Amino acid sequence: MQNAVEIVRVRPDDLIEDFSAQAAALLQELVARGAALGWTCPPSAAEVNSLLRGVVEASSEGDGCLVAAWQRSKLLGLGYWTRYARPTHSPHVDIEKIAVAPESQGQRIGQLMMHELLQAARDTRTEVVTLDLRGDNTRAIALYESLGFQRYGMLPRFVAFGENRYDKLFYALDLREGPA
Ligand SMILES: CC(C)(COP(=O)(O)OP(=O)(O)OC[C@H]1O[C@@H](n2cnc3c(N)ncnc32)[C@H](O)[C@@H]1OP(=O)(O)O)[C@@H](O)C(=O)NCCC(=O)NCCS
To answer: Where is the N-acetyltransferase domain (predicted)?
Structure first.
């Protein structure tokens, strides 16, 4: 099982520089290829480091979860959720990003990371998991719907990428309705 992919939750002590550098390189490559991850140009390594540190620090209080997909010492993917800060929304979390390296896509790594993110949400007694995405991201739509996420809204032509406009889709999974 030397080449097995391992899905782990990143702990505060784990956020070593190598992880952060690999995460930045992965996200930069995806964004440079046009991935719908919220950036219009590749994020700096410092921005990614600060973002991921914030999620991992929140995880010690159950308010965040960062998962990583490793194959030996190579990072193949990452994803995270954070808990809503608004007190009336605090039972709920939002999956903000999930990303798999281009050469590793279509091998169920995204699905495995989503299962881990959802298990972490259940472990922290989360009630509803939300996410949103760009309307042309058909692979992500298929992944989320296969896990039971239901579309609850759409903002037409909301996502701005240069002169282009894309629909923004809103999805939710109610964990109170039983296991997905
Ligand atoms: C979206 C993403 C995270 C999915 O991860 P992945 O590891 O490639 O996906 P998986 O292999 O786990 O496949 C999950 C589902 O996606 C769909 N899928 C996978 N490969 C596909 C392909 N080549 N074409 C179309 N759909 C595909 C399938 O529905 C699959 O489930 P099924 O085979 O049981 O039907 C990944 O493609 C990615 O990082 N994309 C770029 C960044 C991004 O768009 N992130 C999401 C932002 S909301």
So the answer is: 14-176
